[in-house]
Each structure stands twice: as structure tokens, then as C-alpha cells.
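[Meeting: bench + compute handoff]

Bench side (C.D.) handed over the final construct sequence. Compute side (W.E.) agreed to return the predicted structure before the next meeting so the bench team could plan truncations. Sequence as handed over:
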Amino acid sequence: MAMREIRIVGDPVLRTPCEPVTDIDARVRSLVEDLLETVDEDGRAGLAANQIGVSLRAFSWNIDDEIGYVLNPRIVELSEDEYQDGDEGCLSVPGLWFPTKRSWYARVEGIDLDGKKVVVEGEELMARCLQHEVDHLDGMLYLDRLERSVRKKAMKAVREQL
């Protein structure tokens, strides 16, 4: 296992949709170990594989003292009538937080290292994490979801950091 370096906004791997995991081999097992170790640090809620430079559909989470992972996640349900609009941040956009509208509830399905179906669901912070990490795997950053006026300010702040 290894604590991996986080890729920062501007790195093309963050804008490239990730490939599905097709073979659960030693490389994928090592990736999961690295995702779990790298997310296991105070202030980290989630980590997508492309944030550590691997373009495979996998992410880990660290919410309310629960650490886990899912391979080939896909969002299968979002609350349609309840939303949250709190500040959101990202390890790949360090130090910047902006109000981001997300569904209050989210449900993700995928598989584990044994190829068995995994269901991860939650409200509030867990829902935000699930949506945020699946966005990463689709090549999106939370900045892409910001309202136009907020996004303009956010992009200026990002440019000032680079």
C-alpha cells in the first residue's frame, strides 16, 4: 500500500472519463489498497482513481469513520425533490470551497474485489461524496457544476493558485 500523490486541476487525467474495471487483477487490488490508504487522512471524504493518476472506474470514501471503496460505480438513484446547496471542495482543487447544488440522497451500485455487487447509499455528506466521485470518474470536476457567476469566481481563484 502507498499514500499516493493527488493530481491537481489542470492535469488532463482529471478531464478524461475513466475506463471500467474489466479484470480484477493484482494491479486493481493494489489500486484499491492505495485508494483506501490515501483517503484515510483527516479532511478527506472521497478519492477517485484518476485523482491519483489511474484512469479506471474506482473510488474510495471516508465518511463518518467508515472507509470503503467501489469499482465500476454508477449512480442508480438520486433524490429528485430534495437538494443540498452547501460548500464543496476537492483534493484536486486544494483550498477552494464553493456552493454546489447536489441531490440530498444518492445510491451507487458497483462491484467489490470479488466481483460481487456493492450498493453504497447515503444522505447529505455521503450523497455529496458519491455524486462528486462519480463525476470525477466521468471526467468532471465540481467546478463544472457551479452556477455561472460562482464558476467565474472559482475559475479566477484556480488560475491564481496555478
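W.E. noted at the follow-up: The longest strand covers residues 66-78. C.D. will use this when planning the next construct.
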